[in-house]
Predict the structure.
Amino acid sequence: MKRMERILLKIVIVQLLFLLLAQCLLLYTPLAPYVTKVYEYEGVSKQEKTKTIETTVDHP
């Protein structure tokens, strides 16, 4: 059982290292806008004008 726990601990540590590496890659490199899809989900990358309707409501 001790051997299995050691193997699982090593797997968790390796996963943590990969997670930190991926986070650093996405946050601190100029490559980030091309790799992440967040910009597409937020609609920031598209510069389209949308039609807006302005309404006013007068209350006495």
Notes: The mean pLDDT is 78.
